[in-house]
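ok trying again, last paste got cut off:
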Amino acid sequence: MTIHPAPAAQRHAGAAGSGAALYAAVARLGFRRPFAYPQAALWGVVTNAFFGLLRVSVLAALFGARP
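nice, full thing came through this time. structure:
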């Protein structure tokens, strides 16, 4: 009697659901780490917003001065 492996579709039928659950768990844990210190996370957002606006204003002044 010869034993054949299951077709690929049947063999990986449960993998799609578990893969999505794995990505959701990794994303949840990834967001949990920065918000362990909420004040530091808030000041990080404020700092990034300030430097982002600074960068935008410098680029706007640079390209606005060109003819």
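cool. Residues 38-65 form the longest helix (28 residues). The mean pLDDT is 81.
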